[in-house]
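Human: We require from you a protein record containing the residue sequence and its fold in C-alpha cell form, and nothing else.

Assistant:
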Amino acid sequence: MIELKILLECKNAEVIAKSLSVDNINLPKNMIIESRSKDNSVEITIKMKIERANDILTVRNTADEILLHIKNLQQSLNSVS
C-alpha cells in the first residue's frame, strides 16, 4: 500500500476540498482519495494497493492531476475575489 499526502495552506481551503471530492469517481482499482479542510488548510490523501509497477505511476499521475485542479481552482477563485 502506498499513501501520498498533499498539504496546502490557502484561504479557500473548504471550497477547494469540496470541489476536489466531487471528482473522486471512476477511480483506478484499489485507489482511495480523501480530501478534507481545516481552518486554512487542505489535506488530500491518495492511497492505493500496489499490485504492479505501473500502479506507482498511476498514483503519481493522479497527484499531478489533483495539483492541476487545485491550480485552476485557485486561479478561478482569485479572479472572482
In short: The first helix runs from residue 13 to 22. The radius of gyration is 13 Å. The CA atoms of residues 18 and 35 lie 8 Å apart. The chain has one domain: 2-80.
